[in-house]
Design brief:
The complex is a heterodimer of chains A (681) and B (375). Chain A has a domain at 5-157 and 276-598: Maltoporin, Chain A (Beta Barrel). Helices cover 5% and strands 54% of the residues of chain A. Chain A is built from 5 helices and 35 strands. In chain A, the strands form 6 sheets. Chain A has a 22-stranded antiparallel β-barrel. Chain A has a 5-stranded mixed β-sheet with strand order 1-6-7-4-5, with no helix packed on it. In chain A, a hairpin with a 6-residue loop joins strand 23 and strand 24. In chain B, a hairpin with a 4-residue loop joins strand 1 (36-45) and strand 2 (50-56). By secondary structure, chain B is mainly beta. In chain B, the strands form 7 sheets. In chain B, strands 3-2-1-28 form a 4-stranded antiparallel β-sheet, with no helix packed on it. Chain B has a 4-stranded antiparallel β-sheet with strand order 4-5-6-7. Chain B is built from 3 helices and 28 strands. Chain B has helices spanning 6-25, 104-107, 270-273, and strands at 36-45, 50-56, 67-69, 73-78, 81-86, 92-96, 108-113, 120-125, 130-135, 140-145, 153-159, 173-179, 182-187, 198-205, 211-220, 222-228, 231-236, 253-258, 263-269, 275-283, 288-295, 300-306, 311-315, 325-328, 333-338, 345-349, 354-357, 365-374. Classes of the chains: A mainly beta (681), B mainly beta (375). Chains A and B meet through strand 26 of A and strand 7 of B.
């Protein structure tokens, strides 16, 4: 506690001093907006619980999605290593799969067991991240215990684009280009390509797996942790003669890398390959009697295969074969979104989401030599979500969300094999019907400086096929996962200055979750398991301000109590794994002479435990980062980034995935042609 | 010359007798004290963390103190020596000082890292300096120096690779035993963790490690062996069914081996026991075997086998015996690790009833041993 007090004092001091210094005469801060319609929510403007993060938060700073997201209140990030390593988040204690992840409105369902791997999202292609805490808007399908993260890729409406190059510690190389060009009348094409690579060969203290013998400790470099990703997003936009608007996009990702072992048992050749292709089409006709329709169809093929060779890697069953294991997934989803916004004649608004999907999962392995038999699984889903909002008075509105999902699983039977498990899949089918609901009240006019909200929702989540049977980097599936349910309640109060240069938000939240997912790490694999009951209560505080033209700051804090409430006396009352009691984040940026901008970030996280029994204790941690940006020309930018300045790191010897310490990177960014920022200026 | 009178002599004799008499019943000075202690050592694990706890054999509570070890470990007592084998993934040999268990770090005499993936499975001491160390993940059997100064240094390596099933790394040595000058190694001979072949016992010269002979078992997947008089009893689990249970059939059970004839016979079948035997412990004096039986549905029950009466009885008070069994011949007590879901416990059994050995914030029992030592 004594260690953290200066940071807490700094945080509180900045919080109050900045609050007091704000004047209402300041101009509007540009938070970054997406011009292309991605399916907006009619409730976004009313809820306090939407955070929009624009690309300036990560450009040139060598951040992963986890680094960005976990700096906001109520969000905890979990990492297994460096760039490309398995990374997930939890929101307000709701486990990682309880948080839905979308890219341009399409849900990600990768093979990362109990969570989408956020480490595989290259932010160089992302323009904005919308974070919905505690709920999922209807246009994204509703129903999410923890909320939703929506990544919106770069879609500049004007011609032009951006080119960037980065080089940094541990062989980090990044290159990205995004470009928008008009093709023919009323048609334009936006394309983004990104490449990144890292050796991830950072140094760490290898304790040789002997906690009690420090004589055999030595400094080692991370082996077989390299990561390569090539991804892209290519979109045609076309405005039809009848006023309708079409979007056709193709997204692709190729990832490969090593499957590194733990600190005392590093691997040599184990690795993974993942390929993803996604085709998406949507059509938005002109509104009919104020009704806005969006019809879309998305198809996805994803293959994720891992491999290992026991004599060199020492992971899995001891054998002399080169082993490949994994699955391929085919997914098709038609979707309709209907929105009815308010107008002068109506005091209510509504939106409706209807979707169905068909999914098939097949084995992709070389396990014939152990008499494994082909298998496939199919899932059919019909789902709907609705949101209705009544403006009861000028300052009070009531919001009701519902969603329903029916699914049927078909299992072909067969023999299923992983490095540490062989299973006979028993053929058959099962189905279920699940429902969720949320009631919220919002106080305050749209343009009022004060707003308050309270809401209570009940949610569900059924295990996805990929998390039950797919594989990912250092992650194994668990076919025994159960359906999750949960309650989330919140009370929030926010204030913003008339100029919107300063915003303050405080939220009390409470999450009750049944069968939420935790990660259990043994040897070189992590695997998801359910916790029968968990309760998280806490408070979030947030302040964003730009009190002067040359200074801006953001302060976030979370104080929470996240407890295991299962009936097992060993775990009951213990802290939930990876959930600290307090986190603080403070960042500030100063505009300096000579076109320089200097920004610093400080983060503090209290003690946490890696395991349910609270044995694997990770001490409190303070991290400091610094960035220097130089704009010598209007369209040219250089960024020097130093992360984890104090080289802080600590891992329990029993869950030891070494993390990188201090890292450096240098980025060059060149704007091409006219872009939206210039328009705004 | 001064004379000593009768009264003085009498008083002297009385005082001498008194002193001698008192000295037999009175406590000695701490310097001369030699106290014998018997502790039950319980390795506990929730498959994520591992901890060694202990209890006075005559008490009914586990120590609040603990020694943190890898989640998959096995505690072994050999004479007055305590070893812990940290298994696959950790692959360490640990030696503990039983008298210093309360001082966590100080109790660890050494923690030696073995070859990655070697998966140490059993250790049997030849004397206070040397022992054989069995490795499940390697085709090598090691003779090691167990002295604190040597820290488990390898003295001899025996190659057992000729018993490895093709395509696998090792013949899966899981237990060791001594009979005079003969060392016995129990091999599972798995093929990708599937028990496709019957188990095998390899006989070796206990000093040199020379392979002398083999005894093939009748059934697959042996899990333990132990002597009762001159008969070697071997438990076998057989293959798993679809739900990771074992069918009640004739393909598993408890075999007895005529050591002279090198011949094995299944004496108690799985169909009578209720499944495959995942582990057992023997009461040599009363000629009884206590077996943890993995049933059809994947549950672990407790069976008592009277080998003289050829009778099997089920002790159904314990829900899940997968936390292992240990018979302590000195106290005539059976200790049972009960890993029931959300209700794990350590039990003692005195032949007629079970009593709980309680502990606070204790992980589920995983395996155990009893140590008697003097301090």
């Amino acid at each position: 506690m004594r260690k953290t007090s200066p940071l807490v004092a700094l945080f509180m001091g900045l919080f109050y001093s900045v609050s007091a210094s704000v004047t209402d005469s300041l101009t509007v801060q540009n938070l970054g907006e997406t011009e292309v319609h991605i399916g907006a929510s009619i409730t976004e403007n009313l809820s306090n619980q939407v955070v929009s993060i624009s690309e300036e938060a990560w450009v040139g700073k060598n951040f992963t999605a986890i680094d960005i997201l976990s700096s906001y209140g109520g969000i905890q990030g979990h990492k297994q290593g460096g760039i490309g390593s398995f990374q997930s988040i939890s929101i307000r204690g709701a486990s990682s799969r309880g948080v839905k992840i979308f890219i341009d409105g399409v849900a990600l369902e990768d093979a990362g067991g109990g969570a989408v791997n956020l480490g595989s999202i290259d932010l160089n292609l992302v323009e904005r991240i919308d974070v919905y805490k505690g709920y999922v808007p209807a246009f994204l399908g509703g129903n999410g215990i923890g909320g939703a993260i929506h990544f919106i890729t770069k879609k500049s409406v004007n011609t032009g684009g951006q080119f960037s190059l980065s080089y940094g510690s541990h062989g980090l190389q990044e290159a990205a280009v995004s470009l928008t060009i008009p093709l023919i009348s009323k048609t334009r094409f936006a394309s983004g390509l990104a490449y990144r690579y890292s050796d991830n060969d950072y140094e760490f203290l290898n304790r040789n797996g002997t906690e009690y013998d420090t004589d055999d400790d030595f400094l080692a470099k991370r082996k077989n942790a390299w990561y390569l990703q090539f991804s892209g997003n290519h979109t045609f936009y076309h405005t039809h003669e009848n006023g309708g608007f079409s979007t056709l996009s193709f997204r692709h990702e190729k990832e490969k890398g090593g499957n590194p072992g733990k600190e005392s048992n590093q691997t040599e050749v184990a690795g993974f390959n993942r390929d993803l292709g996604q085709l998406f089409y949507s059509y938005e006709p002109i509104p009919y009697k104020n009704l806005q329709f969006t019809l879309s169809l998305s198809g996805q093929i994803e293959k994720s295969v891992s491999h290992s060779y026991y004599p060199l890697d020492k992971i899995g069953f001891p054998n002399t074969y080169y082993m490949e294991y994994g699955a391929i997934r085919y997914f098709l989803q038609p979707k309709i979104i209907v929105e009815l916004p308010t107008d002068s004649s109506r005091s209510w608004a509504a939106s409706l989401y209807l979707a169905s999907s068909a999914e098939r999962l097949e084995d992709r392995d070389n396990n014939e030599w152990i008499s494994a038999y082909p298998w496939h699984l199919e899932q059919y889903v019909v789902e709907g979500a609705s949101n209705i909002q009544w403006f009861l008075t000028r300052i009070i509105s009531l919001e009701l969300e519902n969603s329903i999902k029916a699914y049927q699983n078909e299992n072909s039977g067969g023999e299923w094999s992983l490095p540490v498990r062989n299973d006979s899949l028993i053929s058959g089918s099962n189905q279920d019907l699940l429902g969720s609901g949320r009631l919220a009240m919002h106080f305050g006019h749209l343009k009022s400086p004060w707003k308050a909200s309270l809401s209570l929702g009940r949610y569900f989540r059924e295990p996805e096929l990929m998390e039950q049977y797919g594989v990912y980097r250092n992650v194994l599936p668990n076919p025994d996962l159960k359906e999750e349910t949960g309650w989330m309640g919140e009370i929030s109060l926010s204030w913003k200055s008339a100029s919107e240069k300063t915003k303050i938000l405080s939220t009390y939240f409470e999450t009750h979750q049944k069968n939420g997912i935790i990660w259990v790490t043994n040897n070189s694999f992590s695997k998801p398991f359910n916790i029968s009951k968990a309760i998280t209560r806490g408070v979030e505080l947030s302040l964003e301000s730009k009190p002067t033209s040359f200074f801006k700051t953001r302060l976030d804090a979370t104080i929470q109590k996240a407890l295991d409430d299962s009936s097992d006396p060993l775990y009951q009352g213990k802290k939930l794994p990876e959930e600290p009691t307090t986190t603080y984040h403070a960042e500030a940026a100063w505009l300096l002479p000579y076109h320089l901008e200097w920004s610093v970030q400080a983060g503090y996280r209290s003690t946490l435990y890696k395991d349910r029994a609270n044995r694997q204790k990770i001490p409190a941690q303070s991290l400091y980062h610094s960035y220097l940006t130089w704009n010598p020309l209007k369209r040219t930018k250089f960024v020097l980034s130093v992360q984890n300045i104090t080289n802080t790191e600590y891992q329990s010897i029993y869950s030891s995935y070494p993390l990188p310490g201090r890292t450096y990177s240098f980025t060059f960014i060149q704007q091409i042609g006219i872009n939206k920022d210039e328009n705004n200026q | 010359m001064k004379t000593i009178n009768n009264t003085t002599i009498f008083l002297g004799i009385i005082i001498s007798i008194f002193i001698v008499a008192c000295s037999e019943d009175s406590p000695t000075t701490p310097k001369d004290e030699i106290e014998s202690k018997t502790l039950g050592l319980v390795f506990t694990s929730d498959y994520v963390n591992g901890e060694l706890r202990w209890f006075d054999i005559e008490a009914d509570s586990l120590s609040p103190n603990k020694i943190t070890l890898a989640q998959d470990s096995r505690v072994i007592v050999q004479g007055s020596q305590v070893f812990v084998l940290e298994r696959f993934g950790a692959d360490n040999l640990v030696r503990l000082a039983p008298s210093k268990l309360d001082q966590e770090d100080a109790s660890v005499l050494y923690q030696t890292s073995l070859e990655d993936g070697s998966n140490p499975s059993d250790l049997i001491a030849l004397d206070s300096q040397t022992a054989w160390l069995g490795l499940e993940g390697s085709a090598h059997l090691l003779k090691i120096n167990t002295a604190v100064s040597a820290k488990g240094k390898t003295l001899k390596t025996v190659d057992l690779s000729k018993y490895t099933v093709s395509g696998n790394i090792s013949p899966n040595l899981i237990k060791l035993s001594l009979k005079g000058d003969t060392l016995l190694a129990l091999l599972q001979r798995l093929d990708m963790y599937q028990a496709k072949l019957p188990g095998l016992i390899v006989l070796l010269d206990a000093n040199e490690g020379t392979i002398l002979d083999t005894i093939p078992l009748k059934t697959n997947n042996p899990t333990s062996f132990a002597w009762i008089e001159n008969v070697l009893w071997v438990s076998t689990q057989g293959v798993y069914n679809d739900v990771y249970g074992c069918n009640s059939d004739s393909l598993r059970g408890i075999e007895s081996i005529d050591f002279e004839k090198k011949k094995s016979t299944v004496k108690f079948f799985g169909k009578n026991l209720g499944g495959g035997v995942s582990s057992f412990t023997v009461d040599q004096k009363n000629k009884k075997i206590y077996a943890s039986v993995l049933g059809v549905d994947g549950g672990y029950s407790l069976a008592k086998v009277d080998i003289e009466k050829n009778k099997i009885s089920l002790l159904d008070e314990i829900e899940d015996t997968s936390g292992s069994l240990y018979w302590d011949a000195n106290s005539d007590l059976l200790f049972v690790g009960d890993r029931s879901f959300e209700n794990a416990k350590l039990w003692g059994y005195d032949g007629s009833s079970f009593f709980e050995i309680k502990g606070k914030d204790v992980l589920p029992p995983y395996n155990m041993a009893v140590i008697s030592y003097e301090e």
